[in-house]
Design a protein that fits this description.
CATH class: Alpha Beta
Number of helices: 5
Helix content: 40-55%
Strand order of the largest sheet: 1-2-3-4
Radius of gyration: 19 Å
CATH architecture: 2-Layer Sandwich
Distance between the termini: 42 Å
Largest sheet: 4 strands, mixed
Number of domains: 1
Number of strands: 6
CATH topology: GMP Synthetase, Chain A, domain 3
């Protein structure tokens, strides 16, 4: 897809959302089935069924997907797609890779350390783009700035969002 094709695909959507802001509000859904034999949860991704289980650091076998890995994979996927959409829109040619890594202290998850010094969850996440391009530094800086601004998963992680549990 080139810049013209992307703009043609997005133009009617942007016009509709400007005219009717309610049309832009979409609720995404995910559903999982709790495993009956393993400590697992099967999640339908729309393309495949992913069975998630415990990370080996919490007693898992390592044969099932780890939800922490899936979170980082979602970040990589969203950041990569966003970067390419922005690059396409700006007419930039980029190739390369996107990587995310995150730090966890499993003592918090396992309840070994309940104090505030050992939180449950990631304590840091690093997102890295290793890009091959012939663009100038200003163009790449703008590309990264817009990618950060428009990446849904990045913005959700950095901005936080209320999560209700019932």
């Amino acid at each position: 897809m080139d810049s013209a094709e992307l703009k043609a695909a997005q133009a009617p959507l942007k016009a509709r959302y400007r005219e009717d802001p309610q049309a832009a509000l979409v609720t995404l859904r995910a559903e999982g089935a709790l495993g009956t034999e393993n400590v697992s949860c099967s999640v339908a991704t729309g393309r495949a069924l992913v069975e998630a289980g415990l990370h080996p650091a919490t007693g898992g076998s390592g044969l099932l997907a780890c939800s922490g890995d899936m979170l980082l994979e979602a970040l990589v996927a969203c950041a990569g797609v966003t970067l390419l959409a922005v690059a396409t829109s700006l007419g930039l040619e980029v190739r390369g890779t996107v990587r995310a890594e995150g730090d966890l202290d499993f003592r918090g998850t396992l309840g070994v350390a309940k104090d505030e010094d050992v939180p449950v969850g990631f304590t840091a996440i690093r997102l890295r783009f290793e890009l091959e391009h012939d663009e100038d530094d200003d163009a790449v800086a703008k590309l990264l700035e817009l990618t950060e601004r428009y990446c849904v998963v990045f913005q959700t992680l950095t901005g936080g969002v209320p999560v209700e549990i019932t």
